[in-house]
Amino acid sequence: MEDDHISCGDESQSLSDEQIKDNILTMIIAGQDTTASAITWMVKYLDENQEVLEILKAEQFSLAEKSSPNSFLSLEDLNDMSYSSKVSPKLRLRYALQTRYKIKKGWNINIDARSIHLDPTVYNDPDKFIPSRFDDESKPYSFLGFGQGGRTCLGMNLARAMMLVFLHRLVTTYKWKVIDSDSSIEQWALFARLKSGCPVHVARIRDDVVRS
Ligand code: HEM
């Protein structure tokens, strides 16, 4: 019988059980909850900001009309979603960096990206959902959702791709209404997550555009 084992090359390069476990945990903790939370905020903010939703719909429908129904989205399609890729919410509620404190060896320091994104000394109308606000070239590094520098999120491009595919499917196939306007945030979550879980009413708008 032919050997159907998939070779991983040099055995000494294989991952240990411990490393495999770490990678799985990374996917679940760093990868899944973050993306799920970001998508929840997108659904909420888009429902509350119909003018933004209209611009997004125009981009997504023009893309859907250009390609055949039921075809998969390609990388080029994702690159054509320039407005949609800005619809990335302010998330990650973490504790603030207090410069008054001495930072001891071994401490973990987290930048409170959400407070920076909502800082009125940096942005006009910080509470307004303006997806293009981070385009301002005079304010480099102002979008901190994925971190910056040497430890920038490793899954950033994967997360963006997942969010864009989700947005495309949602916007071109369904309309939705958030049915619980409670905006209170779970107190002990690592990043900003709605207590209500953001329940929505969803209705199909058209059958001819179904893509994945
Ligand atoms: C919307 C979704 C996501 C958000 C908002 C997010 C955000 C972040 C942030 C703020 C950091 C810390 C950066 C720093 O310390 O400066 C980080 C690190 C990291 N993220 Fe994500 N992330 C997301 C999705 C993902 C996904 C899908 C994966 C993997 C499948 C992932 C894997 C990682 C890893 C491995 C690190 C550690 C990088 C390092 O320390 O070198 N993330 N992420």
TrEMBL record:
PROSITE patterns: CYTOCHROME_P450. It is found in: Membrane. This is Cytochrome P450, family 722, subfamily A, polypeptide 1. Keywords: Heme, Iron, Membrane, Metal-binding, Monooxygenase, Oxidoreductase, Transmembrane, Transmembrane helix. One of its GO terms (molecular function) is iron ion binding. The keyword Membrane applies. Coiled coil: none annotated. InterPro entries: Cyt_P450, Cyt_P450_CS, Cyt_P450_E_grp-I, Cyt_P450_sf. It comes from the Eukaryota. It is a single-pass membrane protein. Heme binds at C153. One of its GO terms (biological process) is brassinosteroid biosynthetic process. Pfam families: p450. Transmembrane segments: none annotated. It comes from Actinidia rufa. Its main location: membrane. Belongs to the cytochrome P450 family. Gene3D superfamilies: Cytochrome P450 (1.10.630.10). The keyword Transmembrane applies. Its cofactor is heme. GO terms for cellular component: membrane.
